[in-house]
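Notebook entry, structure prediction.
Reason for the run: the old model in the group folder had no record of what sequence produced it. Starting over properly, with the input documented here first.
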Amino acid sequence: MKRPWVWRYGIAILSVGLAVVVRILLTPFMGNRQPFPTFYVALTLAAGYGGRGPVLIALGLGYISASWFFVEPRFAIAAADPVAVGAYFCVGLAIAAFSDFMHAARARERRNALQAINKQAELEREMAKRERLGREREMVLQDLETARKRLEAVLQQMPAGVIVAEAPSGRFVLANAQVQEIWRQPFVAAADFHEYGGYSGMDAAGRAYLPHQWPLARSIVMGEIVKDEEISFQRGDGTRGTMYVSSAPIRDGEGTIIAAVVVFHDITARKAVEEELQRAREELELRVAERTAALAKANEALRSEVKERKQAELARSNLLRRLVDVQEEERTRIARELHDQLGQQLTALKLGLDAVAAGDHDRVTIHQQVHRLLKLTRQIGHDIHRIAWELGPSALDGCDLPTALNSYAEEWSGHSRVAVQFHCSGDWVARPPSRIEATVYRILQEALNNVSKHARADRVSLIVERQDGHLRAIIEDDGVGFEPDGMVNRTSPMRGLGLLGMKQRVEAVGGSMQVESCPGHGTTIFVRVPVQDVARTADE
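New structure, fully documented this time:
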């Protein structure tokens, strides 16, 4: 159940306040170098109890509080270290995104659990119905058993239809009143076998009885004992019925057949009940099978969702762990470059300035030293510009996406000494949404960065086109290539942060990314993002 908004946003504000208090208590140990660590805990609390809105509120309040209390000059909104601020906002936004994902996953899990409970309840009702039908069937069987016992008692008093015929003519010599009731027609005393044709009947296979095929005739002629032969017969009123017919010959003391007796048992009603019970049983078994299959399908879907959730959680943990490692590696690289290169250059500049200030040389020598110091100063400025460009260019602020990509490709080519062929097509008058522009720019930037780090390529082709409501980008190099399955597979422990991050960026804006590569034959990346035109131009 969703918590009230006052509670969720109150938790976010309270967590930021607690983070400020804890950070103040840790100031004697940490100083003001890292103002944000305790606020990460506040963001996590806000995400767990509130969701995306409270996380964003906590994110903003945390930045304001850190700048006010812990960044010099204190008690004023001051700009903190850009790297720390960037890391803070990146982690905060990642927590907000993951909070949305987790809350949505919990909601889906609750819905699926409710559906499973409903299906279980429906299955229980179906099983109860089946049990009720079983009890009714037992009651019917009990009734049939009672009827059978009553029939046995009645048979003792000759309630069944009975006919006695003499041999060898087959003439009827005796019949009780039940014969007329069973056949529903006046009793006709047959004089011989040929007159048995006055009665219409069929066997179980649907074949009509001929006069000499009736059980009574067979008992007289062949001495056959017939027991409960099922016969479908037509009554005198036009209706059809079913009866069991039993017959046996009557012999004298010498074994000669002198007569035969036939007994008719009308089972029409019982046959109808059995057929109805059979239909009910088949229908019940079919419905139970359908319900069982539906429940199995729901359970399989639930297991699949749980598996996907575990895989997503594992991918998130590995990504966050790799992100921290990459951040530390990048900070170490920048610090090393500042220390080794810019530090030496600044030291040389200082020594040169000290020598000029001493004035111990003639004018020509001083002029040469000044010229060398100016060249060193320009080199320092170029290195600082390159480092700033690597950390995060703002190329999209003043131009559209194709112009920014072309400019970046040219500058990247100059730094990496890899030839880049850039091609752009389509209608770019209306700019795509800024989020999509930034996503595509970062993806292509990361792809070129991967080429410079790993591909060892001599040529890169960069194609960007916009048509049919989609923005497509293709990055192809002639480098060493790799096995793509081992790099972007979510369950692989060896996947790369760059490709996985690119894939997640594309999926975040509703797009897709495919990687085609083979060792020794280069790499091609296909990016496809749906675009809805908005009223933005390059001047904006």
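Summary: Confidence is low (pLDDT under 50) at residues 489-497, 534-540.
The old model has been moved to the deprecated folder.
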